[in-house]
Amino acid sequence: MPDEVAEIPFLGPTSVSLDEMEQQANQPTPPKLDEIKVDGTDIPEDLRGKSVADVIKLAGNLANALKLSENARTNAETMARMASQQPSAPPAPVAAPEPKELSREEISELYATDPIKAIEVMQNQAISKVAKQYEVRLEPLFSGTSNVA
What we know:
Blueprint: H1 18-26, H2 52-85, H3 104-113, H4 115-148
Helix pairs in contact: 3-4
């Protein structure tokens, strides 16, 4: 018995049986997408002759472009909705009733009785005329900037 040595097969991590080797050899290798060209009459003209890898990249880029345009569209809708919900320009303030403008004859009669009061009335009338002219000229400017802000 000591002369007989039992043969023990080595079953380590690198051992492979013949059946396993045949299975690995028969497994198809994945195709190289850079080498496969897209051709045919059913293929759109701009994709003919390109590799499958290029077509996959193009499809990915188109998907990204679609996402970006969809985000831009939703942002534009949101901004339009927000702009429509903003309150409109405040109504013009209601002007107080203006005092009656005195004629020259009335001012001369007032001057004869109370000269300081007559001068005060003339000044107030001149100031109100100038203020009206400024309002008329500056109103388009103010209404244009209030819509922007």
